[in-house]
């Protein structure tokens, strides 16, 4: 069976940009406005000759009532269907309360989690990524979805647990 890799995280951390980077084409919807990606979108992808299904998530409005509950519900659905979860955070912001809520969901689900410390565009960002060890989800992998830094190492880490 083709493994399913779900990309989760709060809006605007760069999930869709990362999905595009991995796919190598501009497929997922990326906008500056948080929460523009509708529902969950699955793509056929490949890394080092191995096929996998890459699932982008989103679709919630952070200003809406019950936002936290919707983030939680989305994450839970995506995680339930995944073999491995890529949890994306924004190193320029650090871990927020919403991120912490997602961490609790991921812990409960018991699926393998790869922490993607995104927006690590430069050396300073890579240093900031180390702070995410505190999440207790293992090694944070610094990536810049925008510039492509670290995306190969991230994919190797994903396949190491598959
Ligand atoms: P999503 O809501 O998590 O899917 O986030 P998006 O992929 O739509 O990205 C949100 C914003 O962050 C966009 O303006 C992206 O260009 C920007 N972004 C995404 N990845 C990076 C990155 O690695 N570095 C920087 N500086 N910006 C990024
Ligand atoms: Mg998106």
TrEMBL record:
<comment type="subunit">
    <text>Associates with the 50S ribosomal subunit.</text>
</comment>
<comment type="similarity">
    <text>Belongs to the TRAFAC class TrmE-Era-EngA-EngB-Septin-like GTPase superfamily. EngA (Der) GTPase family.</text>
</comment>
<comment type="function">
    <text>GTPase that plays an essential role in the late steps of ribosome biogenesis.</text>
</comment>
<protein>
    <recommendedName>
        <fullName>GTPase Der</fullName>
    </recommendedName>
</protein>
<feature type="binding site">
    <location>
        <begin position="118"/>
        <end position="121"/>
    </location>
    <ligand>
        <name>GTP 1</name>
    </ligand>
</feature>
<feature type="binding site">
    <location>
        <begin position="9"/>
        <end position="16"/>
    </location>
    <ligand>
        <name>GTP 1</name>
    </ligand>
</feature>
<feature type="binding site">
    <location>
        <begin position="56"/>
        <end position="60"/>
    </location>
    <ligand>
        <name>GTP 1</name>
    </ligand>
</feature>
<feature type="domain" description="EngA-type G">
    <location>
        <begin position="3"/>
        <end position="162"/>
    </location>
</feature>
